Amino acid sequence: MSAFHGKSVLITGGASGIGAATARRAAAGGGRVLIADTDEQAGPALAEEIGALFHRTDVGDFDQMKAAVDAAAEAHGGLDVLFCNAGIAGPSEGLIDQGIPYDLDRYRKTVAVNLDGPVHGVHAALPLMRGRQGASILVTSSMAGLFAPPSGEVYAATKHALIGFVRSLALTLADDPLTVNAICPGYVDTPMIAPLLPMIGELGLGGTVVAPEKVAELAERIVAERGSGDAWLIAEGVCAPFPFHD
Ligand code: NAD
């Protein structure tokens, strides 16, 4: 039986890519899914297709994030799985990226979505999830949260920060049945990296691309296994907590 079966599952960034693949998997496995996303076209369309709810949510705004959590809890009888997955990346996040000028608004937006989003999500959901048997928080970090890539410094900073957040939170929750883990994908075939695909071999960070369904599979595995505080690296041929050990 699916680890999502009968569970109330909230997925931010669930309208596309990794979030959409996980929403499909959770719904197919008998989960009751709420997609929280800014995309008011793809989000409701996917929700209708898989029998989920859509809640228009900007994760960088705490009140909107809390409203999404409350909507999921009210419609689905609480919250069992919070997947803080929404994230953005873009060319102007590099500090010295091919002469692109420093864009303060873009910097603040990247931090708001990639870091504030999960922090808001956790704060909104913790009162509902603490002490709940079988409950899980997942946060999408990145391979760029484990290794320092040669550009996209701000993106890497937010993704490193998420791993610290998750590891610390897991220690805080050590005596609680609620688990918290980070997923650190390498390259995943989603709209986010479509512009990078032609040059991925030159980027020197692995060079291979996995399907979003593989990341969704890992999300379910983490929910099922009940470990906490891990940062799971998932790339071609690798799916394990980092740092690796025997
Ligand atoms: P994607 O662009 O396909 O999906 C991102 C989703 O987030 C979209 O539906 C978008 O509408 C939504 N979103 C953007 N800003 C939002 C906001 N403020 N509030 C709510 N939703 C918002 O990208 P993806 O590749 O599926 O990315 C998902 C996560 O995986 C991100 O955190 C990303 O950083 C991470 N990641 C992706 C890759 C990759 O290679 N694709 C690698 C490592 C990590």
UniProtKB/TrEMBL annotation:
One of its GO terms (molecular function) is oxidoreductase activity. Transmembrane segments: none annotated. Coiled coil: none annotated. InterPro entries: NAD(P)-bd_dom_sf, Sc_DH/Rdtase_CS, SDR_fam. Keywords: Oxidoreductase. It holds the Pfam family adh_short. PANTHER family: 15-HYDROXYPROSTAGLANDIN DEHYDROGENASE [NAD(+)]-LIKE, 3-OXOACYL-(ACYL-CARRIER-PROTEIN) REDUCTASE (AFU_ORTHOLOGUE AFUA_6G11210). Belongs to the short-chain dehydrogenases/reductases (SDR) family. This is NAD(P)-dependent dehydrogenase (Short-subunit alcohol dehydrogenase family). It comes from Nocardiopsis composta. The lineage of its organism: Bacteria, Bacillati, Actinomycetota, Actinomycetes, Streptosporangiales.
